[in-house]
Structure to design on (178 residues):
């Protein structure tokens, strides 16, 4: 079967191969455009995130996918579940707002994981409060456990490369008109 696909690609020649590569490029570009549109609509740099730890159990478990929004000029309230990223931090953190203070110019927040014994001050990297510029979004919905695929791809890079390679080969070898 694989040799027949190679023979078919040889018949297509350079023009056919370029056409297949353009198809692959259009799929990737379409995905990126949809992601950017979703970022604009939700006003969030990352409108979809995966829970990576158990710090928010029982509200959210590892592998849950969260959907975020970050509306302009809507203050956060105690009890809101936020996703934030502190300067120098690699991974966004999903925790609940436990204190909120509004100053003349900005809102200051203190967060805590539901499953953690204390607040997040140690996670803030020397800051005393989170400011709105640190917040990626407020959780608006979730899908349980669907994010385990993302966790597996991050924990096992070989799986990620095999999957990407398989998709690339599939797109290159798909028949025209199908």
């Amino acid at each position: 079967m694989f040799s027949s696909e190679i023979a078919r690609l040889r018949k297509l020649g350079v023009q056919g191969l370029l056409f297949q590569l353009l198809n692959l490029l259009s799929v990737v570009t379409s995905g990126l455009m949809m992601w950017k549109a979703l970022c604009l609509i939700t006003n969030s740099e990352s409108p979809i995130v995966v829970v990576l730890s158990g710090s928010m159990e029982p509200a959210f478990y590892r592998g849950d996918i969260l959907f975020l929004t970050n509306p302009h000029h809507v203050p956060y309230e105690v009890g809101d579940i936020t996703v934030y990223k502190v300067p120098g931090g690699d991974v966004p953190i999903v925790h609940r707002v436990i204190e909120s203070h509004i100053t003349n110019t900005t809102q200051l927040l203190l967060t805590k994981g539901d499953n953690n014994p204390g607040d997040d001050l140690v996670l803030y990297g020397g800051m005393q409060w989170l400011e709105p510029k640190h917040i990626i979004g407020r959780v608006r919905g979730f899908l349980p456990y669907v994010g385990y695929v993302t966790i597996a791809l991050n924990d096992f890079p070989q799986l990620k490369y095999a999957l990407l390679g398989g998709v690339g080969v599939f797109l290159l070898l798909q028949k025209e008109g199908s």
